[in-house]
Amino acid sequence: MTIVKLTSSNHNEVIKLFSEEIENYQFIINDLLRNNYHGDSFHVYGEYEHGELVSILLNNFNNVTYYSEIERDVKVYKEILKDLSFTKLS
Predict the structure, then answer these.
(1) What does the DSSP assignment read for 4-48?
(2) CATH number at residue 50
(3) What is this structure's pTM?
């Protein structure tokens, strides 16, 4: 498993990750596009396994949102979480 900071060049992979659930998470997609995947208080990280994006962690101002299609261990993001600023987890 590898964690990388995502950019707009990863957008198609993010769309694929949400797949059939994309309508329920359109607000996240909109935020990603509006902020172009980065900003002072906007950070997006992705977990890759076997070269495929399997989860994302979004730090959108004071909120941290995690998404994966299947149940996964979030420990892979532990080191990143300590560097983020947030008051809410989703």
Answers:
(1) EE--GGGHHHHHHHHGGGGGGGHHHHHHHHHTTT-BTTEEEEEEE
(2) 3.40.630.30
(3) 0.91
